[in-house]
Design goal:
single chain, mainly alpha, 12 helices, 0% strand, rod-shaped, disordered N terminus, Transmembrane protein, transmembrane, TMEM107, membrane, transmembrane helix
Length: 327
């Protein structure tokens, strides 16, 4: 069945659909009136011409022709009044299908009138081209009022809310309130659980053996453990780097050793020199490396890259930093 879709442009519907459909209805009504007036010709086409108008066959054929033509006329008239309401013109596909049926109905009715055909064809034309368009018109009318009823019940307009819409609004408000209460309760439950877990953690920490008292002093039973940690710290007071390159017994002047390569392994700039015990005993400072170079007996390089033969000549810290030759 054709789909009922409201036509958006109502001006075109009123101008074209209403005018063309009304013209076909009036033309088809005119043809039906002609059929009623000239019914004898269609009747005698079906029965013998010798029979009189008082015979039973003639009266039966005449009754069928009059009833079918009258019903056809009534369908056309009712459909015309419905069109005047302007409802069916808003439905493009339904109106187009009705126009197509009425157009072919006019052609077939005119063909019956011209050829003086059997009166039974009038019954067929009445059912196909009269009843079917009228049922479509009723269907469109029912669909329109059904949609209007739905809009009145569910579309809320200011000052025009129906009883059903008020109940719907109140029901939705109750559902929203319940959801809010549930969400708040769930959030509070989460906070309570977090507080409980925090308390359990605090109790667990308090139950453990804390090596310090409230005054942050070591307890008697934990003093030995703390002294053990201090002894381990004393083992690493002297840096292993200085133990290797700067032993307590003094530098070993080995003539086969490349002391420039040893100097390349000097500690980084951010090295904490205060950690070495030699710094306190000999007054070592990070900016003064003359003692290191004098003790290590390093060799210098000349401007052309040659090595000097004096290995025991001391160097100043600024000369070492610039890489200058003192020869």
């Amino acid at each position: 069945m054709t789909e009922l879709i409201p036509y958006e442009n109502e001006s075109i519907a009123r101008n074209f659909i209403f005018g063309f459909k009304s013209s076909l209805l009036m033309l088809q009504t005119f043809f039906v009136i002609i059929v009623i007036i000239t019914r004898e010709e269609y009747i005698y086409r079906a029965i013998d011409s010798d029979l009189s108008t008082d015979s039973n066959k003639y009266k039966t054929a005449e009754l069928i022709t009059i009833i079918s033509s009258s019903v056809f006329f009534a369908f056309l008239l009712l459909e015309f009044f419905v069109i005047l309401m302007g409802i069916s013109t808003k439905f493009l596909k339904a109106s187009s299908f009705q126009i197509l049926l009425h157009f072919w109905g006019c052609i077939l009715t005119l063909f019956v009138i011209i050829n003086r055909m059997h009166y039974s064809l009038i019954v067929i034309i009445t059912v196909i081209f009269g009843l079917v368009p009228f049922l479509i018109e009723l269907l469109v009318l029912c669909y329109y009022y059904f949609q209007r009823k739905i809009q009145q019940n569910y579309i809320q307009r200011p000052g025009q809310r129906t009883h059903l819409s008020r109940e719907e609004v109140s029901r939705r408000k109750k559902i929203e309130e319940k959801n809010i209460q549930r969400s708040r309760g769930h959030h509070m439950n989460n906070e309570i659980e977090e507080v409980k877990e925090q308390r359990q953690d605090d109790q667990r920490i308090e139950g453990q053996d804390n090596p310090f008292d409230d005054d942050h002093q070591p307890r008697e039973e934990h003093k030995d453990d703390l002294h053990d940690y201090e002894d381990e710290d004393e083992k690493y007071e002297e840096d292993e780097y200085y133990k290797q390159d700067y032993p307590r017994d003094g530098p070993s002047l080995n003539p086969d050793r490349d002391y420039d390569d040893d100097y390349s392994r000097s500690p980084p700039r951010d090295y904490d020199y205060s950690r070495s015990p030699r710094n306190h005993s000999e007054g070592y400072s990070p900016n003064d490396r003359s003692g290191e170079r004098s003790r290590s007996g390093g060799r210098s390089r000349s401007g052309d890259g040659s090595r000097s033969g004096d290995r025991n000549r001391p160097r100043r810290s600024d000369d070492l930093s610039r890489g200058m030759d003192l020869d």
